[in-house]
Amino acid sequence: MIGSTTTEFLWLENEGELTGWTQHSISDGGADVHFRNAQLGSYDVFIVGEFFAESLTVYYVAGNDWASPDANVQRIVIDTPGQIFDVYVDDFNRDGRYEVLATVYDGDEGHVYIYDIPADFLNDPWERRSIADEFFANFILLGQSMTPGSPKPFYPSEEYEEQTTPDGRQVKPWISLSGDDDGKHYILVPVSEDADDWTYEKNILVDTGATTSGKIAIADLDGDGYTELIAAGYSIGKLYVFTYAP
Fold first, then answer.
1. ω into residue 148 within 30 of 0, thus cis?
2. Which helix (H) or strand (E) holds 34?
């Protein structure tokens, strides 16, 4: 990217009026692209992927009093894996504990990491696992490219979502993934239902053949119980629609 960057992390408060939102600054710098709000123990936190700072961070306030003008916002760095485009919080292996998924570009290739959230998230290390890699960004003249982009877990059908494992857990979701500046879209499929197996099969949903793909929207468009994926082809100017209906 060209030029300097200035970022601010803030929340907006509507006091009941039809127009006008009061801005409350959380921090200057750091947060820039994507973040997720989560409840970790007794803390209401923001898990942030800081693209320019190349850090996965957590912002929290003692007592969760975010609205206080005297709120002492704390920022802790969990990891510095590279440029983080997006983060997503979910229980990806359906074992009753949440994880954080981060899409990361290290300057050479892209990765998808999943982090365990420890019970003492402020002091204990967050274990990192790679579930997909070897994403390579296309060249962009007078700009910076990166890959991959935004993820989203989903099930291919209502029937599949209702299935359970022999030990009573819900089956794992699949993960849709934008390749962003590699021009592709992907589906990451878990190879087993073992809660300790973090192996995924990386499948190309569509190769747009152009520089940048875009995001994927997911819905059951016609109400038949099967999932549709609507994938953007940003650079090529196309929209791709896929269905899991037979």
1. yes
2. strand 34-40
Q: At residue 168, what is the residue type? A: G
d(CA 183, CA 203): 14
**Exposure class string for 102-131: b at 16+ Cβ within 10 A, else e:** bbbbeeebbbbbbbebeeebeeeebebeeb
Distance separating alpha carbons of residues 40 and 1, to the nearest angstrom: 34
Task: Classify residue 27 as exposed, middle or buried by CB count within 10 Å of its CB (0-12, 13-18, 19+).
Answer: middle
Structure tokens at 98: 């949440």
Q: Are 231 and 214 in contact (CB under 8 A)?
A: yes
Q: How far apart are CA 228 and CA 176, in angstroms?
A: 11
What would the pLDDT profile of 144-158 be if each residue is shown by its tens digit?
Answer: 899 999 999 999 999
List the beta strands (DSSP E) in 121-233: 128-135, 151-154, 174-178, 184-190, 200-207, 216-219, 228-233
Q: What is the reported pLDDT for 4?
A: 62
